[in-house]
């Protein structure tokens, strides 16, 4: 089961600046060989369900080891039965609609 | 690693009424022996990380089998390193603060 | 436009215990006369769009005044065009499906 | 109060393909003069609180007029009291940490 995920990891008990912790998770997604792309409020990650979820678990374990007392991850997890779709397909699909609109 | 989760499962391609699908997931959490409690925008579920995540995966698989073309789950996943805390503890903690405020 | 909302307010720069801050928002929803109900990962709030959103804004302003350096609220905001529905209706609808299943 | 928001708009009762509806919201953010950037699971939008929230309301109203029976928006809404920060700053901050790590 292929999954398109969005995840925002929020460690607490580590001060206001959480970017070093977010960077650790980026590294974990990278090492897991998952397609990933960061935006202003999280990271899009895609791959097989078990691989993606294993990476999320490693991310929580790693941040706790790095000192985070408490972690909340906000995730969107999407699967579909009809056809394969990548994260890039989703963005392209909306952009096509916008382009069609501005032509008309 | 103990996890407190909130999950809202959104199947699409099944019409506007999604309550029969939500009911299927409730049943999966129940059968998995996980503590769970439904509210107006999702379900609080708690348990060991692997058990909770296995139930979420079963839920996606089950709803696809039941006809959902596309499913997006919105999840909040919380872990902590300092002490055990249940979902009920979290609610009680806020209620205590409110009670203290109204007494003062 | 009537809205069913779920909100989880996360202040940071205030230590690990955020329940006093969550309690302040509860009080704001109460004073605004909005129907609200707390669960383990947030609060269900319902009412007219402008009233609900004004309360959310007051909540951010109030927590900043109370010392929160940074606040992120995670919100689910639902509106519908077909019929009126309360938060309680949503829960009842799923419970009816579960009861029907266990009878069959 | 400046706000960094992430929003994912989910209309239902309109079939599985929701990209035309997402495109309508993009257009509303554009016309409102708000900085916005789409990713695989939503759109980052930033601006003054009232301007951003007015655009979100218009988006719900517009999609209902366009036929969406039911709409749920998942939003992350962030404000801070200490300093101005744009969405681009947040991404840059994590990238700097990653670059520092790979140099060390």
Automatic annotation (TrEMBL), chains A, B, C, D:
One of its GO terms (cellular component) is cytosol. It comes from the Bacteria. InterPro entries: MTH1187/YkoF-like, Thiamine_BP, UPF0045_domain. Residues 5-95 form the Thiamine-binding protein domain. Belongs to the UPF0045 family. This is Uncharacterized protein, MTH1187 family.
């Amino acid at each position: 089961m292929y999954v398109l995920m969005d995840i925002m990891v929020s460690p607490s008990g580590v001060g206001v600046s959480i970017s070093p912790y977010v960077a650790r998770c980026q590294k974990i997604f990278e090492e897991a060989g998952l397609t990933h792309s960061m935006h202003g409020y999280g990271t899009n990650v895609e791959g097989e369900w078990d691989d993606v979820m294993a990476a999320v678990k490693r991310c929580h374990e790693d941040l706790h080891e790095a000192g985070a007392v408490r972690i909340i991850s906000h995730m969107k997890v999407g699967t579909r039965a009809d056809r394969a779709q990548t994260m890039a397909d989703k963005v392209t699909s909306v952009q096509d609609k916008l382009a069609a609109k501005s032509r008309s």
